[in-house]
Ig-like domain-containing protein (Electrophorus electricus), 244 residues
Amino acid sequence: MAKLWSVLVVELFLHIDTMSGYYYERRSQCLYSSRDLNDMVLIDSYIFNKIEYLQFNSTVGKFVGYNEHGIYYAEKYSNDTALIQGLLAGVDGVCKQSADFCYSHIMDKTVEPRVKVMSVKQASGNHPAMLMCSAYNFYPKAIKVSWSRDGEPVTSDITSTEELADGDWYHQIHSHLEYTPKSGEKISCVVEHASFQKPMVYDWDPSLPESERNKVVIGASGLVLGIVLSAAGFIYYKRKSSRP
Ligand SMILES: *[C@@H]1O[C@H](CO)[C@@H](O)[C@H](O)[C@H]1NC(C)=O
Ligand SMILES: *[C@@H]1O[C@H](CO)[C@@H](O)[C@H](O)[C@H]1NC(C)=O
């Protein structure tokens, strides 16, 4: 299986001469494929007009040239013990230290998702009902959102978005479940994420959500107020009209 390399660009020197159109670049990359950073390689590339003519590879331990100019400098630089030692020391001193810093300050950090389960569509006639489970503002991106029905995992009628980037390091994801309601059943959304010790279970509460309850309360109050006022008005009218 091909290794998946992570690249950390630690230094980029770019010189573009707009008058002549020349383009010079030196790029130092730290490549590694495992979290323990044991296979860290430092690659130092020298590039002229987008062609890499000279490269230092810390595994090889010397410079290699790819054209006449490159070969000349490869010999010259490879002879420079202090330069080679310095570059080899960079594998630990620069590459591993920078990667450790990135992991401890960014990549190993986790932020718990805020999870909401809501109804998108009520069942009507032959059409099934639909629930949506949304997870917001989590980091890192990797997450698993699944459904269970009376404790059993649901395997069909689920559609999910990708993890959507919010553009501020956080992500969101939305999973939809189509189902035919049965009375007394319990439907839950199960979220697995690096910020949780164990999968978190969010039960679907089929009672009216708060905003709907508020609408009902406001509507009922309005109705009561209307009845009271019209009764008061009617009594007032009756009294007035019964006076001689
Ligand atoms: C660095 O050198 C090693 C050993 O020759 C090689 O396996 C590896 O592919 C080289 N890396 C790059 C990026 O050229
Ligand atoms: C590299 O070093 C060897 C031995 O010290 C010397 O003979 C050779 O000329 C050097 N090459 C360059 C390109 O400086």
Observations:
- The two ends are 104 Å apart (CA to CA).
